[in-house]
Structures are given as structure tokens and as C-alpha cells.
Amino acid sequence: MFISRWLSGLLFPLCLVISLSAAAEVEPLTFSVVDYPPYLIVSDDGTSATGMDVEITQAAFSAVGIKADVNVLPWKRIVKLMELGSIPGTLSCSKRADRLPYMLFSDELSYVNRVAISRNDFDAGSINTIDDLSRFSVVTVDGWGMQKQLVKHNIVHQTTPDLEGAIKAIRYRDIDILYVAEFPALHYAKKFGVHQDLKVKYIGTEPKLPLHLCVSKKYPNSQEIVDKFNNGLHKIKSDGTYLEIQSKYL
Fold first, then answer.
1. Which CATH superfamily is domain 28-111+210-247 in?
2. Nearest CA to 120 among 39, 51, 71, 189?
3. Per-residue confidence at 26, pLDDT binned at 50, 70, 90?
């Protein structure tokens, strides 16, 4: 009996030390994001972020026992840090050829519809393909996938550094079309109280664009991070958690 109690007294603090050591080694994965509502919604003070894809990502990692956090950084800095392998990665980014050398891409996290947005009094009825945009004055957000697409199709366009500027350009300047992701644009238009002044034109030739968890190839255990996320994503899609989160925002 004495030996048993002595061993218990010895093993308990030992187990506690091991447990605390293991917990200390498992730090959250912190992904860097930009403001991209409703997928990524940065707080007014710019210090934190929530949103549909933040919740989905955290739920997917939680399903496989991993804690995930987010912080807010400018997009160009995120890209540079991912190229260096200094951060795990980012959320809600599209798969493009220029990103393949330094990014790994998860299964589909969410998606966007690429649309032409105009003022209500503008006739956008003749826009059926992206090439039709070449007949109009067009604005988009610098560095986003839609801007790269306009470049690829040799469509002359203007850019703004963020979506706020793009919405103001289409509403208050002599610009015909804003080529952009639908949900983020409508979110901002509603935020600025101008959504009733604008209309959406769907472009039939443009399929939905998948968005992914994007992980830096140079970050430690990068492929394992993607594999575990995909496993967790499958779990929350199967048990209904994914749709439950999505329905809060769409």
C-alpha cells in the first residue's frame, strides 16, 4: 500500500510535467488574412478578423485536434512572408499558376462568383462574356484574381487598392463596370448604404471560383497541415457544421 501511494505521488507530478510540456509544444497555427467580407471580416480597428472562412477553417482544424488563429496583414506582406516560409499561410485565396511555386492548396474551402456590377441606370445587358467588358470602362481591385484575369484577356481597366475604393469608383466616378467577386462587393455596398443603387450582372462563361486554405511550401510540415485540414474539412462537411456556418453569412 505504501509503495503504491509512493508511486502514485511520484508519477502524478511527472505526468503533469509531461502534459504541460506537450501542451507548450502544440502552438496554434496563425494564418494571416486581409479584409474580404463575408469570407474574412476585419474588425474596425484592424487588429482581428472573423468571417465565414475563418469560422470554417477553425472548425475544420478543431475537428482534427488543431487550434487555428488568424491575424491581419497587408496582402503584399502576406505573399512575401509565404514566399519566405515565415508564416503558415492565408485563407480564401484562389489557385493560380504564379502561386504554385510557393503555395500548397487545400480542398475547396469556399467559392466566389465573378460578376459585373454597375449602377442601376447602366445597360449591362450586352455583357455575356468577360471579353465583352472591353467595350466599357472597368475597375477592379489591384492584385485580386479578377484583375489578373482582365490582364490575361488584355482588357484595359483601372484598379483601386481595396474594395472600398472600387465600390466608390463605380458609384461616384465615371466608371461603367466593377468586375469583382459578388459576395464581398455586395457586403461592402450594403455597408456603405449604396447597394440599392447597384445591380449585378452574372457572366455565363465564368464558373464559380474555388477558394482554398493556402499554405506556404517552405513552412515546416506544410503538406501535413494541408492534409489534416482536408481531413477536418471533410468531417465538418459530413456532419453539417460547414453548412451551419455558411448559412450565417450567405
1. Periplasmic binding protein-like II (3.40.190.10)
2. 189
3. low
